[in-house]
Amino acid sequence: MNDAGRGVALGAAAYLMWGLFPLYFPLLEPAGSLEILAHRVVWSTLTVGVLVLLLRLRSTLAEVLRDRRTVVLLCLAALAISVNWGAYIYGVTSGRVVETALGYFINPLVTVLMGVVVLKERLRPLQWAALAVAAVAVVVLALAYGRPPWVAIVLALSFACYGLAKKTASVGAVESLAVETAVLAPLALGFLLFIGLAGTAEAGQHGVGHALLFTTTGIVTAVPLICFGAAATRVPLSTIGLLQYLAPVLQFLLGVLWFREEMPAARWVGFVLVWIALVVFTAEALTHRRRQLALAAEASAV
Question: Model's pTM, two decimal places?
Answer without folding.
Answer: 0.89
